[in-house]
Design brief:
single chain, 479 residues, alpha/beta, Aspartate Aminotransferase, domain 1, Aspartate Aminotransferase, domain 2, 7-stranded mixed sheet, 15 strands
């Protein structure tokens, strides 16, 4: 054995001798503090594994590598504690949305109103009356919790709810169009988030899709010429996540209903977002209203619950009772049915719409949409004032004009004026600053433009601003 090998052996032995034992390591404060928040078996297994990993690293190290290894037990305890906290903290956790996208799909779309939050809290504590008839004590109809409300608010004869709007479309097509032809305009073969496409949903439902017209123009005679003995229904899909402008034309609801009546075919209207109030009254761009489709005589209407409605994720199906009853009896309805949390939140949300005068104050999405620029400017300038002095040598902060978006395929291409705080660090890039904010607890999501990190005060709630300020101050203090 040469001198280098002897030296390496001594170095390895010295490091191994300094390693703390498992019982003592578990009793060091950083790891001991975890025992109240994490299962004992998790803490023990990971501690044992990391201690063994360090032992193996020492045994397999070169002489040069041994000089870089630090066997300090406190340092090891902190590393293990940090790993456990990062690896096993809740994955679905609260987040702050400063992106300016109000219905941010990746961040859970519409925040629930306070009444819906309370309703969910009430039903998760113990048992609840989700599917029982209180009068008879026998099995009840879960649709009953919201059906009367939906019919009252929209004028529909009947209603049912499934887990999302894609599920609603699937149920409708499978119930009314299985093995038969469904006519749809080429300009309405939409793709929604996650690459889910209407043709794919159509195929999975076992309906036969018949495309009519062109991408930009579809006429009534296109539909009429496509009707055969095997036609089951006519479908219209609102292009909620994009717009075709210029030389374009589509058939009105009135004409589609008249055509359906002429050939005794149901007409289905998938309006996507689903709006129960007239946005124009609040100075906002027009969005298709559910009531208008029902008034036009559409047989079945479907839309999302967690978009403009501002309720939980679900797909709401309204229309003629004879068609809704068929869907309720379809075995697929059970596979797509909603749970007690959804019904509790949806019922509470729908009740807000019974009083339109107070709706804006309680409806989170409508509240964000209608916040005046003056209020946003005040919040943004206050934010700037709080951070300007402590960060003056580290980061430039300016308040600028910008645009928010409703998002999730609602009000496509419609910009909503807003106020933003633009941060340009003198030491780190906007991307690094954005990463650090996302690593915060709670995570803070922003957007980046022109090498600046932007915070949009239309989606950043007033009670969240202080949390964002503290997170930014902490980043620059520690960085």
């Amino acid at each position: 054995m040469n001198d280098l090998e002897i030296q390496l052996k001594k170095s390895r032995k010295s490091l191994l001798d300094q390693l703390i034992g498992m019982p003592k390591l578990l009793n060091l404060p950083p790891i001991k503090a975890l025992k109240n928040d994490f299962p004992r078996v998790i803490v023990h297994d990971i501690t044992r594994r990391e201690l063994q990993n360090l032992r193996d690293k020492i045994k397999n190290s070169t002489l040069e590598e041994t000089k870089q290894i630090n066997p300090d037990p406190v340092k090891l305890a902190h590393e293990i504690a940090n790993f456990i906290q990062m690896e096993y903290k809740p994955s679905v956790a609260p987040a702050i949305n400063a992106t300016g996208i109000i219905l941010h799909t990746a961040l859970g779309r519409a925040p629930l109103c306070e009444a819906a939050q309370r309703a969910v809290s009430d039903v998760i504590r113990n048992y609840c009356t989700i599917a029982v008839d209180k009068k008879t004590g026998r099995r009840g109809d879960r649709y009953a919790h919201v059906e009367k409300l939906l019919c009252h608010l929209t004028g529909a004869e009947a209603a049912c709810v499934v887990n999302n709007n894609s599920g609603a479309t699937m149920l409708i097509l499978n119930t009314l169009g299985e093995g038969k032809e469904v006519i749809i305009s080429r300009g309405q073969l939409v793709e929604i988030g996650g690459s889910f496409r209407i043709p794919d949903v159509m195929r999975r439902s076992n309906a036969i899709m018949v495309e009519v017209g062109t991408t930009n123009k579809t006429h009534l005679w296109d539909y009429k010429e496509a009707i055969t003995e095997n036609t089951s229904l006519i479908m219209r899909v609102h292009t909620s996540n994009y717009q075709i402008i210029g030389f374009s034309e589509e058939v009105s609801l009135k004409d589609l209903v008249e055509l359906g009546n002429e050939y005794n075919l149901p007409v289905v209207d998938d309006i996507g977002s689903g709006c129960l109030i007239d946005f124009k009254k609040d100075g906002l761009p027009e969005e298709p209203m559910v009531q208008d489709s029902i008034k036009a005589g559409i047989d079945v209407v479907t839309f999302s619950g967690d978009k403009i409605l501002s309720g939980p994720q679900c797909g709401i199906i309204l229309g003629k009772k004879k068609y809704i009853d068929l869907m309720k009896k379809n075995p697929l309805a059970r596979a797509l049915r909603c749970d007690k949390y959804t019904y509790a939140a949806l019922e509470a949300t729908l009740k807000l719409y019974l009083d339109e005068e107070s709706l804006a104050e309680q409806h989170p999405v409508l509240l964000m949409l209608t916040l005046p620029i003056r209020s946003l400017a005040n919040r943004a300038n206050t934010f700037k004032r709080h951070l300007q002095d402590p960060l003056q040598k580290k980061c430039d902060i300016t308040v600028i004009n910008g645009y928010s978006q409703l998002g999730s395929g609602s009000l496509p291409a419609k910009n909503i004026a807003t106020k933003l705080a633009a941060l340009k660090s003198k030491k780190i890039s906007a991307e690094v600053l954005g990463n650090k904010l996302r690593e915060n607890t709670p995570s803070i999501f922003t957007r980046i433009e022109n090498n600046a990190l932007l915070l949009d005060f239309r989606t950043l709630r007033k009670d969240e601003i202080r949390t964002v300020e503290q997170a930014i101050l902490s980043i620059f203090k520690n960085g």
